[in-house]
Design goal:
Chain A has 366 residues and is of the alpha+beta class. Chain A has 9 helices and 9 strands. Chain A folds into 2 domains: 78 residues, no CATH class; 220 residues, no CATH class. In chain A, a hairpin with a 2-residue loop joins strand 3 and strand 4. In chain A, helix 4 packs across helix 5, helix 6 runs antiparallel to helix 8 and helix 8 packs antiparallel against helix 9. The two termini of chain A are 29 Å apart. With 166 residues, chain B is an all-alpha fold. Chain B has one domain. The longest helix of chain B has 136 residues. The chains are: A alpha+beta (366), B mainly alpha (166).
Chain lengths: 366, 166
């Protein structure tokens, strides 16, 4: 646990540095006009965040990109689905797309619906769109597509294993012999010790949780893949489910500990009860941040290490870039291996802590 | 702005995450977790069962071998007693046969002796009678030849008388 929290600190520092660097970068570009050094932050941020197309390589219309369906929900009803290729990779709001009479522009990955009668987007000095509303974006984005890919993989793997388990009564073989120990590990080493005798009820959920996180972590490590479990929306949903399951299954003594903490003097109750109530939310909140930060940090570190080569090329020349590249590649390889470990570790920790919270909420106090 | 976007959850993505996660949960629960865990539990049960039955079989085998030992031991004792009995019977039979044979032999010898004696006596009697007959005939012939003249008759009388006088 100590190493995890230590890592979280590192991650936050990294995010802070990455997040604050656009400012310094823009200042630099104003100061030094004679030489433009490569700024890795846009590329990294582009990779870390979600998008409407699955971009592999290349620029603009010549790039290798899978265009994904865009689905929007505004007060006028559903807009779409239509393919994101309609935007022609435009992301600054100057390309207006018309779908079912709605005029749409995209700025910084966000799709805006122009107000009625408006022909073009107008911007303020910070490049905010003034004459548009933001419909709710239900698009099959890169992250959704990646999740669907992980879903298909999981269904194939466990579909085969499940049917094999049904037919074969002897020792497991093939795919099942690889997945079965993992399933049993989750059951016997994560769920059973933490929840206790009622573990069977929560086992399907926790198994699904573990393999969902694990598969998305691993799919996220493939080259050109999305940053699924490093997206706050996804970790928010997962931790919100933990919050729901924990509190719905919470028994009398769980609520008793919150609203009537045993052994606390009456005078301290006004302090203790709010703290306990906040505690309900901090636990899943920590889960959300931990998974998001760990996976995002991994992606940021790997991309930063690769960016070193291009920074060296723009700042120091080709020779420096070529001589630096083996070092960077070795570091990236090392980080990739660490990230495989982290993929398992974070799936393990998320499932372990969820089990622990459920266990604490359902344990019988005498 | 970019950094804020990183920590701002997108509603659409949350929606799809919920859909995908629930879909995954429902499908995997039915087609993966249940059959896999059932197979594991079944296997565990069958292993425990197999182990306990093996233990039982072992105990049974032990009892069986103990029984066998007992039966073997009994059989040995019985065999010994049978042999002993047989030996006694044999000896008995032999001695009985021996005594019977000797008594029979004695009897036979006795009767043979008796018969021999009888035959002997018979023969003796017959011989005596024959001898008596022959001697009478001889005496007759002698007397006849001796007493053919008066002179010899006279001599005989005289001799007889002489013998009688003595």
């Amino acid at each position: 646990m100590l190493s995890v929290s230590l890592k979280n600190i590192i991650v936050f520092v990294t995010i802070f540095l990455v997040a604050s660097s656009p400012l310094t970068a823009s200042e630099n570009s104003q100061d030094s006009t004679e030489k433009e050094t490569y700024n890795p932050v846009p590329a990294i941020m582009h990779h870390i965040s979600d998008s409407h197309e699955w971009h592999f390589w290349g620029e603009g219309d010549n790039s290798v990109t899978i265009h994904l369906p865009v689905i929007l929900w505004s007060e006028d009803g559903l807009i779409g689905p239509f393919l994101s290729s309609k935007f022609h990779h435009n992301d600054d709001g100057h390309h207006v797309v018309e779908v079912n009479g709605h005029k749409l522009v995209r700025v910084h990955g966000k799709i805006y619906k122009l107000n009625d009668g408006q022909q073009n987007a107008t911007f303020d000095d910070q490049h905010h769109v003034l004459n548009a509303t933001i419909p709710i974006d239900f698009s099959i984005t890169k992250n959704v597509a990646s999740m669907l890919f992980a879903l298909v993989l999981l269904l194939i793997f466990f579909g085969i294993s499940g049917s094999k388990a049904k037919k074969n009564k002897s020792a497991p073989s093939g795919l099942l012999s690889f997945l079965e120990p993992l399933v049993l590990f989750v059951r016997d080493d994560i769920v059973k010790p933490n929840i206790g005798k009622n573990y069977q009820k929560y086992l399907p959920y926790l198994l699904t949780l573990f393999f969902f996180i694990l598969m998305n972590n691993l799919v996220g490590l493939l080259p050109g893949s999305a940053n699924v479990t490093g997206n706050i929306a996804i970790t928010l949903v997962l931790s919100f489910i933990t919050l729901l399951v924990t509190n719905i299954s919470g028994n009398k003594s769980y609520w008793g500990h919150i609203f009537n903490p045993p052994g606390v003097p009456l005078a301290l109750m006004p302090i203790m009860i709010p703290i306990e109530i906040v505690g309900i939310f901090t636990k899943p909140f920590a889960l959300m941040i931990r998974l998001f930060a760990n996976i995002s940090a991994g992606h940021i570190i790997i991309l930063s290490l690769i960016s070193l080569i291009f920074m060296a090329q723009s700042g120091l020349g080709d020779i420096a870039a070529w001589s630096l590249s083996p070092v960077a590649v070795m570091f990236v390889l090392f980080m990739d291996l660490i990230e495989v470990l982290v993929a398992f570790l974070q799936a393990y920790i998320f499932t372990l802590l969820t089990s622990l919270f459920i266990g604490l909420a359902t344990v019988d106090h005498h | 702005m970019d950094s804020m976007q990183l920590v701002t959850p997108a509603i659409g993505l949350m929606f799809w995450t919920v859909v995908i996660f629930i879909l995954l949960l429902v499908i995997l629960k039915k087609f993966a977790w249940k059959p896999i865990l059932k197979a594991v539990d079944d296997r565990n049960n069958s292993i425990t069962e197999a182990l306990s039955s093996a233990e039982k079989a072992k105990a049974e085998m032990q009892q069986l071998s103990a029984n066998n030992e007992k039966i073997l031991h009994e059989a040995r004792i019985e065999r010994d007693s049978i042999i002993k009995e047989a030996r006694a019977i044999k000896e008995n039979t032999i001695s009985e046969a021996k005594s019977k044979a000797s008594s029979e032999a004695e009897k036979i010898i006795k009767s043979a002796k008796e018969q021999i004696n009888n035959e002997k006596m018979k023969a003796m009697t017959e011989l005596k009678n024959e001898i008596a007959d022959i001697s009478i005939q001889m005496a007759e012939k002698i007397i006849k030849s001796e007493l053919k003249d008066v002179k010899s008759q006279k001599k005989l009388i005289e001799e007889t008388l002489k013998n009688q006088m003595n």
